[in-house]
Amino acid sequence: MSRINISKDSVTLFEKKEAAAFEEAFPLGNGTLGAMFRGGAFTDVMTLNHDTLWSGYPRGDRYRGNKKESLDKAKALLREKKYLEADAEITNNFGSYGSDAYMAMGALTVSYSYGGSKLSAYKRTLDLTSAVAALSYKIDDRKFTRISFVSKPADAIVYRTVCENGTFSASINLTSQLYSRTYASEDGARLFLEGECPVTSEQNLHRTDRQTVYSDLPEERGMRFMCALCLITDGKTVTRGNSIEAVNATFIDIRIVARTSFNGYKKHPFLDGKEYKNSCLDALNSVCGRDERALLCDHAKDHKRFFSRVKLNLGTSKKMHIPTSERLKLYVNGGEDKALPALLFNMGRYLTIASSRKGSQASNLQGIWNEHFFAPWHSNYTVNINTEMNYFPTLAVSLPEMYEPMLTLIKEVSEAGKRTAKEMYGADGWVCHHNTDLWRHTQPVAGMAVYLFWNACGAWLCHHLAEYYEYTLDEKFLASTAFPIMCESARFYLSQMEDSEDGYRIVFASTSPENRYLHENGLTAIAETTEMTMALVRELFGNVSRFSKLLNLSNDVTRNVENELPRLRPSVIGSDGRITEWYGEREEKEIHHRHVSHLYALHPGNEISPMTTPELADACRKTLEVRGDEGTGWSLAWKCNFFARLFDGDHALSLIKRQLRPCNTRGFNYSGGGGSYPNLLCAHPPFQIDGNFGVTSGICEMLLQSSPDTVHILPALPSEWKELSVRGLSAKGKRKISLSVKNGELYSCEITGDMPKTVYVHGNDVTEDFVWENGKAIYTPKK
Fold first, then answer.
1. Is the pLDDT of residue 443 over 50?
2. How many helices (H) and strands (E) does the chain have?
3. Which residue, 301, 219, 227, is CA-closest to 258?
4. How far apart are CA 475 and CA 466, in angstroms?
5. In what helix (H) or strand (E) does residue 499 lie, and over which residues does it extend?
């Protein structure tokens, strides 16, 4: 493959004004520390986050009432076809408590004094290739530049402003909505923020004092933290109350570090918390002794070694002079911008690197970026789609290292979920429900059955274990970690199996995530089983069977799985030609509901395909047509993946275009459809990051699909994409793919790694068109 040149308009966000809101700021992060760069010329406010700063503490013993008795009662009602009563029983008696919340650590505020007021030549950028936010502007005739980045090697936030031809002054402060205090060193060179998280996650308790949401009892104290900064400047430094100030400076250089008392999901953050103050001070001393050029060089080198693995060129639009927010408006009105979908694709890769690094927590509903005391939906891990979507593209875009936090989350949830299975179901194995959090909450949350009662999350998390093995072929990981977790998940579902009226085996009593159907004179979510649940269990049992043979391992679970597999209820096509969502044909309350969970077997599962199961694929298409293209940000992204799996590139691209609609709504308004904020973060709305990752995955699926034995090249190439090139995508079987398209046809392709048994291009078998050259399979089409 020849060198792929990437246009700047596909890797750079650009604005001509400062961010007026969080949704216009540029996200920066290293997996642990997050910051939002607003670029204020006179007052700049940077939101600060730490990935382990959550409310609460481990509450594994907080069960309310006899849950097993309630479940048995609900199942008995279900057998009598009393669906509304079963729903009410689950709603009233089966829930436990809400997940804890991801908290905003605080904010850095820098107030500038110039002795002048005329602002001009403002330009704010985020370079996705180096993960550096930059700002340039003039105040009267003085030129200013500013850069900011969050370094993984230094584990610090760096913020530097320089005046090229004059001086300025700046007042610097750290604040937090949490219970906290800020104090400065006597020399005016350092500033400290110490605080504590609340112990409750109830959204209506917006209190910042020590009443109600905080406790003085040691066993009820929450996470503690320290955030510290040092100021390096050639100006005079002074302390003014709880702030520090640089006076008559030509530059200010601020370095920020943070530590929390988090000591593991099982450890109480107050009683058994990790020492954090001295650790924070040591980190500050270390980073403040570093040269700014060395910090920048190490940071950019670290980021580029991941970001440069994949390059996508859809063409240039030469629109670097147009702000990203304006490009969105032009695009939605029909303007040509070939590079904009590529920019969104690259944004997903950038956010993956910025929010999920080895040793960090997995990306939550907002990645690591949150400005709220209590974020929407607690910014937790919603594991009925959203957390999983955060990791849809990670392996395909050659970032297996960034998958590690997800693998850690799954391992810890599988440990925590054993108690939930035992105490709430009287079952062995492990289970997880709708939400989890830093403390690996696995019980059903409080609330309504439509969301609290969905116990198939464990099976979905196991899908990611299988995906990781299939991409990496890491047999040690499979044998020591993935397979045992899968077996224990299967053990739980085996305990929930019953015979159905239509002669199959089903997981009895289930919901379809967040959706309800009409029954008699009411609404209910509970049914004998659902397609989503059964698709996941079919996949899980199939993987347990497959991997047991690969590893030559057998136990009671594998034997029971082998017995159940051929009897599991398959996907069912209803009388209207659609895949049925619940057991039997039910009338949906919302025919255009944002969740399309009953198509899991199409994506991310691999059970349904136009090539192997055309009738079911047609039923999936009909399901999507009736559901409609509109939806929230992540819903649009998932539908893009669905249509890519149906080999319909034009429809997949139309959903990407919907995702690129500019959104100015910042509240809860997801009934109106999703889009993108000016900073390209996904608008649910409100901001929710999963759609960013979902679109990146969708573009991968349009260009490449794979199984351990098969590679599909350009399975869903849109007719608009006449010319493109991509390098470095990963395929299952530990393979790398690079390709180019000219005049709408495959022009060149390289496959590194073992040659797959079958290679398809546009759905046609072209295996014989590849020849081995220098350890690579090279595409040489026959004339």
1. yes
2. 18, 35
3. 227
4. 11
5. strand 497-499
